[in-house]
Amino acid sequence: MTETARARRVVWVDASSGASGDMLLGALADAGVPLGVMAEAVERVAPGEVRLGEERVTRGGFAATRLHVEIADSEQQRTWRDVERLLAGAGLHEDVRSLAHDVFARLAEAEGRVHGMPAEDVHFHEVGALDAIADVVGVCSGFVHLGAERVVVSEVSVGGGTVHTEHGRLPVPPPAVVELLRGVPSSGGPVDLELCTPTGAALLTTLADDWGSQPAMAVSHVGVGAGGRDPAGHANVLRLLVGAPGSETLAGAPSSAAVGAVGSAVLLETNVDDLDPRIWPGVIAALLEAGASDAWLTPILMKKGRPAHTLSVLVAPDRAGVVRREIHRQTSTIGLREQQVGKHELDREMTTVEVAGHTVAVKVARLDGEVLNVQPEFEDVAAAARALGRPVKAVMVEAVAAARGLA
Fold it and tell me: Is the separation of the CB atoms in 67 and 25 below 8 Å?
């Protein structure tokens, strides 16, 4: 698979029958990701302790791949910091390590909210066991191998009834799954079983660039991953559709010219109270360079009177994964809030005007062809002011006057 081919791939995850780590592993293998790719990554994290086994099964009429994570008995419990150190020392490809780190950080934050404790103190119990670590690392290595430009996830079915955990019998969806799926489409049923596990929910919410039905795409590979159970009347499978992206503007779609271009965006937010304030300007610049359409800080006061900032980042769905990882790279946060938001944009274009022989870029915004706003680019104005030895405010007035002629 060439890098060019990878760069043009889109993946749709059909989680309408549920999601778990082993279902995602099976779907990746069924879609053509070599088992050796995932097994090698798992071996780096847990050398000699885990083996991946592949089996062809049928679930509700679907031929599917079931991946077994085989490990020796282990009762070891790990905190988030233990898992973080394990990943850091495993020699994984950086993209795989970063993605797996984000999954476990998300899990830790959700478990911390559920149990009322700091994320770093959370003991993962079953989630921290080798089989779950293998699920996360294996799935992350599989998606990195696919090299998807965009990952879209369907509405997630969570099931119903109750489930037995270390904390006793809990309703489905269990509290950690509810926390992990905040702000994303999910639904109960269609059977009284736990259909979405915490590991599955953490993986989906970390991988997803967008949520919804299958995007426009030319499907080239289909992967069907099986869950361990085979309940009557329910196909316990997760599907991956992999292909080349198609046009996202459908013929016959209603015109949005009256209100400007209509689209969607992802809003990423996190509260940070332990970052040197001098670092923030560089963080904002790095996020914009990574593809964010906007990024800003809001001063807040947290518990115990601690001053902090809320970092808010607006990004197109197809760049959310890259920007999400950049936030973790650039800041000290271990978790993010995320929600889909609607976005209305005027048609815009860039042009230039001349001010005393210096070129200044100007952004022109239109509605139904009518120019509503013209705005000179400040950096060009400042550069012209320096070259001319004049105040910036004077050059800005001239640039605005010249730009008005474009209306």
Answer: yes
Question: Cα–Cα distance between 265 and 274 in angstroms, integer?
Answer: 28
Domains assigned to the chain: 3-245 (no CATH), 261-345 (3.30.70.1380), 347-404 (3.10.20.300)
Residues 70/73/78/83 CA torsion (nearest 10 deg): -30
Give the integer Cα–Cα distance in Å for 15 and 208. Answer: 12
Alpha carbon 31 to its chain's center = 21
Q: Alpha-carbon distance 320 to 148, whole Å?
A: 13
The beta strand positions in 87-161, using DSSP E, are: 148-153, 156-159
pLDDT digits (tens, 9 = 90+) for 53-107: 999 999 988 999 999 988 866 566 677 888 888 899 999 999 999 999 999 999 8
Residue among 167, 175, 164, 197 nearest 69 (CA): 197
The whole-angstrom separation of Cα 323 and Cα 320 is: 5
Could you tell me the two tokens for 278? 């001098």
pTM over 0.85: no
| Both structure tokens of 348 | 């815009």
pLDDT digits (tens, 9 = 90+) for 274-293: 999 999 999 999 999 998 99
Q: What are phi and psi of 316, to 5 degrees?
A: -65, 145
DSSP conformation class of 278: G
According to DSSP, residue 125 is labeled G
Mean pLDDT (whole number) for 31-38: 92
Closest alpha carbon to 147 in 265, 219, 244: 244
Q: Tokens 């937010």 appear where? A: 269
Residue 67: its H or E element = strand 62-71
Q: Rounded to 5 degrees, what are φ and ψ at 65?
A: -105, 130
